Structure formats: structure tokens, C-alpha cells
Amino acid sequence: MKLSPMFVCGAxxxxxxxxxxxxxxxxxxxxxxxxxxEALLAPPSADHWFGSDNVGRDTYSRVIYGSRLALYIGxxxxxxxxxxxMTIGLLAGYFGGWVDTIAMRVLDITVPFPFFVLxxxxxxxxxPGIENYFIALALVGWVGYARxxxxxxxxxxxxxFVLAARTMGFSHPYILFRHxxxxxxxxxxxxxxxxxxxxxxxGAALGFLGMGVSPPAAEWGVMIAEGQIxxxxxxxxxFFPGLAMVLIGVGFALMGxxxxxxxxxxx
Amino acid sequence: MKILRFIVSRLLQSVPxxxxxxxxxxxxxxxxxxxxxxxxxxxxxSDETIAIIRxxxxxxxxxxxxxxxxxxxxxxxxxxxxxxxxxxxSELVAQFYPVTLFLVVYSIVLILPxxxxxxxxxxxxxxxxxxxxxxxxxVIGLAMPVFWVGLLFARFFGVTLxxxxxxxxxxxxxxxxxxxxxxxxxxxIWVVPILTRNLRSALLDEMNRDYVTAGxxxxxxxxxxxxxxxxxxxxxxxxxxxxxxxxxxxxxSVIVETVYAVPGMGKLMVDSILARDYFVVQGATLVxxxxxxxxxxxxxxxxxxxxxxxxx
Lengths: 267, 312
Known about the structure:
Chain B: Keywords: Cell membrane, Membrane, Transmembrane, Transmembrane helix, Transport. Chain B: It is a multi-pass membrane protein. Chain B: InterPro entries: BPD_transp_1_N (IPR045621), MetI-like (IPR000515), MetI-like_sf (IPR035906). Chain B: It comes from Neptunicoccus cionae. Chain B: One of its GO terms (biological process) is transmembrane transport. The structure holds 2 protein chains of 2 kinds. Chain A has helices at 5-22, 24-27, 59-77, 79-95, 97-110, 115-126, 130-140, 142-157, 160-167, 172-209, 220-227, 236-262. Chain A is an all-alpha fold. Helices cover 72% and strands 0% of the residues of chain A. Chain B is mainly alpha-helical. Chain B has one domain (89-311): Orthogonal Bundle (MetI-like fold). Chain B has helices spanning 2-30, 36-41, 47-56, 63-75, 89-124, 129-143, 146-160, 173-179, 181-207, 210-217, 222-240, 242-259, 265-274, 278-306. The longest helix of chain B has 36 residues, at 89-124. Chain B is globular. The termini of chain B are close together. At the A-B interface, helix 5, helix 6, helix 10, helix 11 and helix 12 of A face helix 1, helix 6, helix 7, helix 12 and helix 13 of B.
């Protein structure tokens, strides 16, 4: 399989961010939580590379430490939706019948809700915080995975190797796990890459609205919100965390796109 | 006659979805912490008052009959009452909803020209330089946080250049257009890449059809085949995506309205969450879902009118 340049670019970006997250204490020039009244709203300089915020915290160090939260949210946030969605989708597609009917009706009901609105209202009821965001994602985010896995399972159900396995007397769970699941993986993995970008974006949006990670955490959405009132005088407080989000999001999205091309899922 | 039958059956199909949506919004409220009625009437209200209101919303009944009370109230247009404004939620919806609708329609108007231009451009030579650049710019557009773009736009176009107001909705229609320009543009940036990608692949699918080869071999030029055959045929799959796009726009409006302080449903919802005004949150969620359902219906009926194959 030929590596697509897009995949290489994306994977490099993601690898760099992972390194930054791991080596955050080495890379940061300041304590991300240290308040410094000598340097309030200081513009970018040799000491504060990305400037400092309204209580003198170093924006660069906060952006560096923020990568830990972003990766944590993005990578952990997609796991539960993927497992739930794949299980429901594979069972519905493979067995069909009433299992499929019920699953499809539930999917139909979730379609009209704007994804972010539903996540927001679930978090509103459960209370702010990352754990509740994860719960909301598990409740809502599985839909996309289920739809993909179901479509794959319907095709695989009547494929020759599955029929052969049936004739040889293998059980349904065995076939599902050993033959259907591995073959249904590729579109799901591609979708997961874009989903990581979205989960990071929505997590930061929750932080921005005051319903995600709570201040004073060095989380990018929270930081952008903190810089909002200073946007005309100290643009750097909001600008750099947002730029970091773009770079991490592009990384995962390019990886997904490149992978889709390599696996010939789309042109 | 056939089309009428299609419309009726399509309307009937949306009944279970509507019921499902009402179940979801109902379940949201069942789990709210604390007693919403106590919050509604305040701490000094007598127990009798609370008992009367609890009875009105059927909060002491078993959960199943609570749901039917909720559904009955919904059918009559009663979405509960706001704790903050002390008015029925339906009144708030009537006040805030048109603003969001304006924003969504405005965004769509801004979205369509670039989508058509970019997707045609990239489909003309798939994997050519233009296609690659459009694709990568699209990926960047997708990864940009809406609230961040909003802030930067407000700062640059609003403060530095002083071209547009950065908050509010204005009072006259020309003012609405001016006030909502930046919010609509911010929403558009996010949706343009998604739609472009879809229209592009629809165009590519159509370009590989037999009728294209037939047209070309009869001596029609490529531009002519593209204009009169490929493009119209590609619009239908994109039209079907429209409902999803409206859902995206509504979700985006929640963030964009907060950034630009636009008094629409999204801002109402966020403010109500922060104020623990749960009936409004529930009502807003329901209204968002209903909007998408209506758009889905409209798109399906429109597709059936355009493409006679659908309603057979």
C-alpha cells in the first residue's frame, strides 16, 4: 500500500503534538498556572513567547500544557461511542430482522437533533465537566459509527467467506468477531479520525461556553474564552490556543483523509 | 395524485420520529437535578401553590403518564414556563426563533456560491492542483473552532476595520443584514468544506455515467455536457444533504450567537443552561429538532417533485 502524502502530513502533525504533550514540562518556559503581576497582558516577547494573560500567566506554556487536555479529550472521547456504535451497527446489519428495525428507528430519532445541541443539553442536565461530556458523547456519538458498521455488515453478511464459515458450522459470535468485525473496520477508523477532530472542537466549545473543563485549567477553549474581553488590546491570549486547535485538528483530519484514499474508500 | 399520496405517506412516516424526539426531550427533563417547580415559583411559595403546579405538569404521576401529560401539553403548544423570564417558553421561542431563522437562511445564501464554484472547480480535474488545494483549505476550515473564528472576525472586521457591528441584531431589516453578516460568515466557513466535498463527489459520480460518453460521442462539447446534464443531476444528492446541513447550522448558531451576542435561540439556550432554566433548554432542544424535521420533509417532497423516480 502506497502511503498518501496527506496521511504522512497528518500523522507527522499528530506525532509532533503527542511529543509536545509528553514533553510539556520540558518545553514550557513557565509554570502554566503561575500568576505574575509584573507581566499583566504582556505582548509576545523573548520572555513570554506568546505573551501573557490578564493575571500574567504565560500563554505559550499554557498552550503547551493544553495539548495534554486536548489529546486526552479527543482520544478518550471517541472510544465509548466507537465501541457502542460498532456493536449496535454490526449486530443490526448482521442479524437484520427486528434487531435492525429497532436500531434503525433509534437512529432515525437522533437525526433531527443538531449534534452539538444534544450534547449541550445533556451536559446542561448532568452538570459541567469533562466526565459529563464523555457521557453525552457515549449517549449521542455512537450513531455515526453504528450507521457505518451496519452498512458494512449488511454487505459482509452475504459475502462468500462468511457463508463458507457458516456452512463449516462456525457460530455467529465467532464469525462476527473474527470475520465481519475486521473487515468492517476501515471506514470506521477513517470516520474515527474526523471524529477526534470534532470531539476536540466540541470539547473546547464547551470549555468556551463555561460547561466543559473549568477554569483555571490550561484548556484551549477556556483560554479563548478568557481572552475574549481583551481581544482588542491583547489578541494573543485567544489567538494562540485557537491556532493550536487548528493544527491538531488538521492533523487528525488529514490522517483520516489520507487513510480514506489509501484504503480506496473515496476518490 | 401520486405526488399527493407520497406527501401523505411521508407525513405519516414523520409521526414516529416526532414521538421519538418528544421522548428524548422528555427524558432530558426527568433527570434534572432539584425540583424545577420549586425553582420556578421561588422559595417563598406555599406548598399548595407548588402542589397545584406539580399537578398541572403531572410531576407526581408515574413516569409513563408524566410523559403523556408532557406530550399532551406539547400538542397544545405548551412547552412549560421560563424560571428566569416568568413567561411561557412558547413566548420566548416566538421572540428568539425568527432571529436564528434569519441567521440560518442568511448563512445558506452566503454558502451556496462558493460551494458551487469550488466543487465544480475541483471536480473538473480530480486530484489536480486546484482540487488538492481546495481540499486542504477545506480541512483547515473544518478544524477551525467556530468561536475562535468569530472572535478574530469581530476583532478584525469589526474593531480594526470598523466595517460591521460585532454584536446584537439591530432593529430594521437593513440593520439585520449588517449585524448578522459576520455571524453568518463565521458559520459559513465551517459548512462550505462539508458541502463542497459532497457536491464534488456527486459531480464525479455523474461524470462517469454512460450519458456523458454518449453526449460527447454525439459531438457535444464537454462544457455543454457538464452544464446541461452533469450539474443538474448532481444537485439532487446534495439537496438531500440539505437537512443535515441545517442541523449543522443550527448547532453552529448556538456558538456563533453567543460570540456575537445575537439574541437568537442558541444564545437563549446557552444563557438558560447557565441560569438552570431547564424548561427553556428543553424547549429550545425540541424546537431545533422540529426545524430539522420540517426541513427534511420539505427536501423529500421537493426531491420527489424534481425527480419522478422517487415517488413511484
